[in-house]
Amino acid sequence: VPAAWQRPYLNIFKHFRVEEWKRSAKEGDVAALTDTRLKGTVYRIRGSNPASSYLQLPRAGTQSLGLIGHYLYLLFRPLPHKHFLVHLDVTTEDNQVVRISFSSLFKEFKSTATWLQFPFICRAASEGTAWRGEELRAGAGLARTPGAAPAEARWTCLVLDLPSILALYLGRRYGHLRGVKLCSNLLVRNLCTSDLLFEPGVRFSEARLADPSGRAVTPMPRELAFPVPKGEKWHDLYDYIR
Prior knowledge:
It holds the Pfam family CFA20_dom. This is WDR90 protein. The structure is a single chain. The protein is mostly beta strands. It has a single domain (about 5-125, about 145-240), classed as Jelly Rolls (Sandwich), CATH 2.60.120. Helix content is about 5%, strand content about 35%. The protein has three helices and 16 strands. Strands 1, 3, 4, 6, 11, 13 and 16 form a seven-stranded mixed sheet that branches. A seven-stranded mixed sheet has the order 2-5-12-7-8-10-9. A two-stranded parallel sheet has the order 14-15. It starts with 8 loop residues before the first strand and ends with a strand.
């Protein structure tokens, strides 16, 4: 059956009603907070080590989210001076479960037939213009090494092209997103899946225009977008990593 209910995008926290903790699970120090800057609820996950506290979807490891969107959007901010860890479990077309992990703890990219580990480098707000998308590519020449998040780490929109990741590193075809485990130390605003590649910082009034390459521009849905005060620019306030 076509997953029409997942299109054009699926707000995962909203759809699975994370705040009720019936279809999601939490362990350790996980709290819902109101963020005045983002004008909404964020989840703070913190612990003495990254695996000690987490927010997990779905609640049971034997269940599956069954989300088929090609892109996964994670809106998050690393906690200052801490390491963090995120696990994504995806199922291939031939029903092989593969774990995709990224963390500031990983020193280098590692892979097996069932596990891809990407080092994540947290950038400070003072380091200039926003990143645009090569930071998670294995073997990319990085100016800095992974480590604890800086004091002024920014809110980040991380976009993962799940079919491309599986094809590039394992030669497998993507089936669906099975589960997500957000471990400490993070602030998380939301998760979203979609077949559309959203462009942050673009107003809906500008969406009718195309970029120089002729590609149609799709603005980020309002319920998933970071707020931008009048006179400010999105990329001066937040990071976008694809």
